[in-house]
Amino acid sequence: MSKSKVRVVVAMSGGVDSSVCAALLVEQGYDVIGIMLRLWSESGQVTRRDNRCCTRDQMIEAHLVARKLGIPFQVIDARERFKHDVIDRFIEGYSQGLTPNPCLACNRYFRFDYLLNEADKQSATHLATGHYARIAPSSNGAFELRKGIDQAKDQSYVLSGLNQAQLSRVMLPLGHLTKVEVRQFARQLGLSVANKEDSQDLCFVADGDYRRFLHSYAATSSEPGPIVTGAGKILGQHTGLPDYTIGQRKGLGISYTEPLFVIDKDITKNTLIVGTRSELGRTHFQADNMNWISGKPPEEETWADVKIRYTAPFIRAKVTPIGIDAADIQLETTMPDITPGQGAVIYDDDRVVGCGIIAPKS
Q: How many domains are there within the chain?
């Protein structure tokens, strides 16, 4: 089948990456349709009301890019589904004492499912996004998720929740390019977004202050409580458990004979547990709710590289599957910020093996 007969829906955001993604596919001869999702955002409490992934300016930018490329473009209202699949999950995670990664959850539970359903409605066989990662067929006919060529921009971590059915229909045209090359291509095409900065903040938190957001939307989990040492000595009072992260040192509002760090949260007692640097690190944890990219876990324990959050370094670890839904992970190096609720993503060289959610200490 010629590429002109292959219809591809491109997830557009008004940014340089998704714009170049669409432009590359048009250049290659695909039948391209641009779609932008309108996502839930706060209203009434803060000045800024647009979701950062779909502001009015971004909608205009995406529309202008689509018009320049000569492709259809539409904005689809996905606010209710986004609120249910991402925001409610984010709030519930914090209410359980976790520190969830909403971008990981968005891609795993919302964005790709939603857009692939929209692709079906448009009679499109594929969905393309501007993520920096690669999809490749494996020797057994399955699909592999691999790191992007640009290591500084690699986004395989946030795509690690995709399954085989999704990977078989997803295209990632930027995976073999660097960010510099993408911007150069945008300039050559005369796209107005060529020099646009990347978005960094949580898209749905209007002012970028997630603590303020949680105090507004999860008030029952943001009540003050005691700060204690591991031995139970009360040192002060915290402002709400969601305000703190594992490994945090500054902003505790307590004094002690040596520096103290957040080492755990006891959600049942609404207690923040602090300790010295020597008490902070650990090498062992369990990851739950596993997604194995191949569709099944390794048959036996294996050595791999593990990332415990998007910006963390790769750490060598022994990974032992526990059934199909969990894994025991033993790191070679002590890490000070192993945080329940964050994603642990397992790699074999540049190939993503799977991902799970770091479980609370048992």
A: 3
Residue ranges making up the domain that contains 297: 281-358
Tell me the two tokens of residue 329: 């992970």
Supply 273's token pair: 């547990």
Out of 53, 54, 103, 203, the active site residue is 203
Under 8 Å CB-to-CB from 218, ≥6 apart: which residues?
91, 94, 95, 242
Q: Rounded CA gap, 346 and 319, in Å?
A: 8
Q: Any catalytic annotation for residue 53?
A: no
For 69-123, write each residue's pLDDT tens digit. Answer: 999 999 999 999 999 999 999 999 998 889 999 999 999 999 999 999 999 999 9
pLDDT in tens, 236-288: 999 999 999 999 999 999 989 999 999 999 999 999 999 999 999 899 999 99
pTM to 2 decimal places: 0.92
* 106 classed as catalytic: yes
In a domain, 343, yes or no: yes
Among 21, 53, 54, 106, which one carries the catalytic annotation?
Answer: 106
Domain-embedded: residue 308: yes
Task: CATH number of the domain at 334, please.
Answer: 2.40.30.10
